[in-house]
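Usage

Read records sequentially. Each one opens with the input sequence:
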Amino acid sequence: MKRFVIGDIHGAHKALLQCFERSGFDRDRDLLISLGDVCDGWPQVNQSIEELLRVKHLKVILGNHDQWTLKWMTDGWKEELWLSQGGAATMESYRRDPKLVPESHKHLLQEAALFIELDNKLFVHGGINPGLTLDKQNPEILLWDRDLLNKAVKICKKTPDHRYGKWENIFVGHTATEYYRTFEPIHACNVWAMDTGAGWSGKLTIMDMDSTQYWQSDLTPSLYPNISGRR
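and closes with the structure output:
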């Protein structure tokens, strides 16, 4: 069994398939950890979740967009902020009717974890407060934080051996590396930023979490021509 981690998918099913193919991912044998934000952005959220459900050894982290989507799926909630940030595309993928969402899709998001520890690795969508133990973390920080990555990027320039917590590597999504003018994963101190902009103008990235070798999709706008996504 190989062990993989994948960044924010944002409804880009075509990019997900490319990552699986290019990495040689085996849906029956290999482990996959999704860092969250499967939803909102490109028009294939339905297909993306269905594809993940085909993975036998799957662990999913809850992202802030997944949390929004789950509210819509369960009680019809929708706000303009969510709609403008890719929620409209998520609704369209289910024909704008939460009653048409398969129970298995809702269950995937309902059971998603706020963080996962595996061996000496930590997986979280947003970030953590390094001064607190995991059981004391604020869920909003786990879902929305950008400070961990931003500080790691600054600190590693002066102190590359600086470590956050006890972990060999901390894998995060949420903050697109596009903000740092790259579509590649960013390695800063012991933090790996895995959101390489698939929800915007970038690529989707899948990584072997043990070797840190990674593979990427094409630029997502090229996979969905004439569709604006979240851009």
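Summary fields computed downstream for this record:
- The domain at 3-221 is CATH 3.60.21.10 (Purple Acid Phosphatase; chain A, domain 2).
- Residues 11 and 45 are 4 Å apart (CA to CA).
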